[in-house]
Amino acid sequence: MTGRLVVLSGLPGVGKTGIAEVVAARTGSVHLSIDEVEESNLACGLPRGWRVGVAAYEATRAMAEQNLRLGHDVIVDAVNDSEEARQTWRTAASRTGAHLEFVCLVISDAQEHEWRLNGRDRGLVFVGEPTWADVERRRAGFALWSDEVLEFDTAVRTVDEVSDAITARFCA
User: Fold this and answer.
1) How far apart are alpha carbons 34 and 20 in whole angstroms?
2) What Pfam family does this protein match (any one) (predicted)?
């Protein structure tokens, strides 16, 4: 039996990891975070750059596939701002027969988004925290979705509200 793959996407600071943690805890799903994998790659001395990011996506895909084949639901949190990144999860679903759902988190209030971003410290020594300018650059290059995607605005919905909606729709 193959599990479900739910991919939480969005710019840094929109609440992906917090919501993924809540949904995973409520449903017994496996939570995989790209940033944690990239952090461990960099901690091993790999040079910062595009290749380490791609390696993090591929390592996370492999872990997702392994868990999906075991019948576990998997919640991934990753920016997923390009078609290439999104193809990673399409590939995982195709290889395992998992049902794939994309969820995109946004913050409609730019001041709120910047405030949240500037106030966070995830303890990632090597990945670090992006600046507001970094987020603005990523926003400008964020690819349009070619997949069906469920969108939540975390400026107007709480972590619990978004987690409840995701849990009810995908992971019940």
Assistant:
1) 12
2) AAA_33
56-82: pLDDT as tens digits: 999 999 999 999 999 999 999 999 999
What are 9-56's pLDDT values in tens digits?
Answer: 999 999 999 999 999 999 999 999 999 999 999 999 888 888 888 999
Query: H or E segment at 6?
Result: strand 4-9
Please compute the mean of the pLDDT values over residues 110-124 and round it to a whole number. 89
Residue with tokens 């990632």: 124
Task: Name beta bridge partners: 30.
Answer: 74
Contact (Cβ atoms closer than 8 angstroms) between residue 103 and residue 150: yes
Q: In this structure, are residues 8 and 105 in contact, taking their beta carbons and an 8 Å threshold? A: yes
- Alpha carbons within 13 angstroms on the beta-carbon side of residue 46 total 18
Task: Identify the band that residue 83 occupies on the pLDDT scale cut at 50, 70 and 90.
Answer: very high
* 68/50 Cα distance (integer angstroms): 27
Name all domains of the chain by residue range, CATH numbers in brackets: 4-170 (3.40.50.300)
SS3 category, 98: coil
- Using CA atoms, how far residue 85 sits from 38, 47, 82, in Å, is 14, 20, 5
Residue partners of 118: CB distance under 8 A and separation at least 6? 132
